[in-house]
Amino acid sequence: AIRRCVVGQSGAGFGIGILVVGSARTEISDCVLVDDMTGIAVSSSTGAVVRDNQVAGQVASGISIQDLGTKTITELPAAPEGHEIVGNVIELPPADGPLFAKAAGIELHGTPAVFLSAALGSEMPGLAPAVVHDNVVRGGGNGIVLADVTNAEIFQNDVDGSVRGLLILTGGWPNAFRHNNVTASAVGVVDLQTRQIRTGRNVADLAYKEPIEPPPDETPLPVEVSWGGEGS
């Protein structure tokens, strides 16, 4: 457990404030991270709990949960324990300039290898399932980012002032994004893997009043979203 640490200070942060690699059931809680380019990074691990931390300053990535790619199949349990990211407050810098335009509050990055497992004849896991809830992200380019991630549950988060509320890069189905409150300056949800952009009644809202119909070819929608009254 890593608890109640202060890492970095104004004008003198680290590249990565707290880095956890190859761990099981690590808890990172009640820490304050200031001006670290990446606040908290968890890689090649299972069952991490990242709770009630504060990340602020010149931040390119608040909390980054990365794949299990450095572990071999024999080193992993059949069903890796999932991660929980809960109760964190992340203050990102304004999204101006080439670096902070892509700044992200919470990032979940799996590995493309999981989507090649059938062709390779293996069952290599990518990212252990993650639950992301009751976090606050303010500012920055992206509130929450998904890449090569499946079966994530993202709910009851507040994303305020980011350019994009939820950004899906690749491999973002199925995931659930519901009961969140998003005020994005450009778009609520953007799915770059299928080049679909979804907004509500205006570009500052993510508010769905009617279920979204699947595309004509019956391809599954890349993300499940809230209906009216269940987050905006």
Poorly predicted segments: 195-215
Which strand order does the major sheet show? 1-4-7-10-13-16-19-23
Mean of the pLDDT scores? 78
Percentage of helical residues? Answer: under 10%
Count of distinct strands: 23
Largest sheet properties: 8 strands, parallel
What is the approximate shape? globular
Strand pairing plus helix content: what structural class? mainly beta
How many helices? The count is 1
**Proportion of residues in extended strands:** 35-45%
Give the termini distance in whole angstroms: 35 Å
Encode the helix/strand succession as letters.
EEEEEEEEEEEEHEEEEEEEEEEE
Radius of gyration: 17 Å
Description:
By secondary structure, the protein is mainly β. The protein is built from 1 helix and 23 strands. The strands form 3 sheets. An 8-stranded parallel sheet has the order 1-4-7-10-13-16-19-23, with no helix packed on it. The protein is globular. Mean pLDDT is 78; it is low at 195-215.
Please specify the SSE layout and strand pairing:
Layout: E1 2-3, E2 6-7, E3 16-21, E4 27-29, E5 32-34, E6 38-43, E7 49-51, E8 54-56, E9 61-65, E10 83-86, E11 89-91, E12 104-109, H1 117-120, E13 130-133, E14 136-138, E15 142-147, E16 153-155, E17 158-160, E18 164-168, E19 176-178, E20 181-183, E21 187-191, E22 196-198, E23 224-225
